[in-house]
């Protein structure tokens, strides 16, 4: 859709066009299973960093445990990368090898 011609000086006109704004691509933050990170730590991470209610955090933790991974949340790339960094740093600080990754929505 175009807007009306707008004078741009010296008798010339300029056509302004609307550009479509697209939603940014979303990224899934995944928690990956390991044999060492305690289940209660995973639940705490889901509650603290991903604002999950206790019951939902328990279900995601069980998916990680039984299926090898669980979706902690879906965010824009910057937010997803920040959450990965925060959770990884906290896990290492506590001595846990918990792996957290971000991948584009629709992959995997």
TrEMBL record:
Encoding gene (name): clpS
Entry keyword set: Hydrolase, Protease
Gene3D superfamilies documented for this protein: 3.30.1390.10
UniProt similarity note: Belongs to the ClpS family.
UniProt keyword Hydrolase, yes or no: yes
Protein name as it appears in the record: ATP-dependent Clp protease adapter protein ClpS
UniProt-listed GO biological process terms: protein catabolic process; proteolysis
Every Adaptor protein ClpS core domain range: 23-100
A GO MF term: peptidase activity
Subunit organization: Binds to the N-terminal domain of the chaperone ClpA.
Species the sequence originates in: Deinococcus wulumuqiensis
Described purpose of this protein according to its UniProt entry: Involved in the modulation of the specificity of the ClpAP-mediated ATP-dependent protein degradation.
